[in-house]
Specification:
With 205 residues, the protein is mainly alpha-helical. It is 55% helix and 9% strand. It has 13 helices and five strands. The protein is globular, with a radius of gyration of 20 Å.
Length: 205
Amino acid sequence: MDTSREHNPDMEALLSRFGCDEPYQCMLMPYTEFLRLSGLDEEQGQRIWSYISNQIYPIEEKHKLSSVLKGKERWISTGDRYIDMCLGGGIRLGNIVEIVGEGATGKTQLCLQLAIAAQLPERVGGADGEVIYISTEGAFPVNRLETMALPFVQRMCGEQDAQRFDIGGLLHNIQVAEFENMETMFHALDYKVPAILASRRVKLV
């Protein structure tokens, strides 16, 4: 039984404003649509978004999940402590993770951060390994990665430890595969990717 509305009298009004019957339905709509329907500015809308999210999955439960998983599984940090907390520590190794969202909401940015984070030491949330980056939407964004890589490494490792990393080394550890259609991609997944996995220390695809 859903009791979220019993404990939060304002929830009924919020759901009515967004045309939803249950809190989770608000989280399924695009954030831009959510913001438009709310009639609020970005800051106020974000507070309401976080409030509704917390009714679905309370922050205490997120902390509990993180503490239960910590030490039992290995993960790669996303570089964002709030996302890591919600995921129980980050992107868990050995799992398939689907990242979805509207255009220009940070999906590629997150993938690039993970491609770097996977190369960092385990003590800072990395996997001390290499990466296979499969792109089906144009060329790999080299310039974008070069711009954000070193600041990201410094933030994760600290300035002193970050000195042992350079752009050339980070790019060398990312095996890029670009495909224009599903047929060539599936062929590569059957043959090329397993060969790379067998010969290199790949920790993230």
